[in-house]
Target: Redox-sensing transcriptional repressor Rex
Amino acid sequence: MTPNIPKATAKRLPIYYRYLKILADSGKKHVSSTELAETVKIDPATIRRDFSYFGALGKRGYGYDVSSLLAFFKTTLSQDKLTNVALIGVGNLGQALLNYNFHKSNNARISAAFDIDPQITGLIRSGVPVYPLEDMQEQLRLQQIKIAILTVPAAVAQSVTDELVAGGIKGILNFTPLRVTVPENVRVQNVDLTNELQTLIYFLQHFEHNG
Ligand SMILES: NC(=O)c1ccc[n+]([C@@H]2O[C@H](COP(=O)([O-])OP(=O)(O)OC[C@H]3O[C@@H](n4cnc5c(N)ncnc54)[C@H](O)[C@@H]3O)[C@@H](O)[C@H]2O)c1
Model:
């Protein structure tokens, strides 16, 4: 049975899960909250509190049992099959999307954000860790993220896109005005509010002239 856990904790489970899987694959049997904290960039106290919700109480000098944690996460996560999404560029628009974080969707959420601004990297914004851009390819692979939301300035949109593709991204929700170039196997969905507004203005004018 899955215990009732707070939403913020639930959001962190996929992050823990991915790292625990890697630890288990490398033959590690135990992990301390401090060790885990360093890798996932979530503070040890939060990790201990999160883990306590499902009865995993690490032992001093021993840490948590990797395989039993993994088994727990597997059951919990498979129930709602979340798709993790990355967000690149935590500025005005990026932060707004982080706040929103698809809270009405059971199957998609932003699990990692990236930026170049040292003022925000290393922080957790709206429950989502913000990593420096240098860590992007590594994190995308570790967290097995295939979809990215692009909210960087247009001038860097193509170079960031190239990095995303190199990091294994297969789908990009592009908010920048630049029409980025990608290989055939990568899908780009462009979101353009200005365009939508222009269309609306056009239809209203058309309606006024004819109605
Ligand atoms: N599609 C739309 O409807 C719509 C609406 C508003 C803004 N936009 C576009 O969204 C983008 C972001 O707009 P904003 O107002 O949030 O801008 P902003 O300047 O507030 O934020 C941009 C963020 O990207 C970061 N950044 C810069 N270079 C980067 C890089 N190489 N890698 C990672 N992060 C990097 C900056 O540090 C900053 O935090 C712009 O391209 C803008 O034109 C689109």
Q: What stands out?
A: Helices lie at 7-25, 33-40, 44-53, 66-78, 92-100, 136-142, 154-166, 193-210. Residues 20 and 26 are 10 Å apart (CA to CA). The longest helix spans residues 7-25.
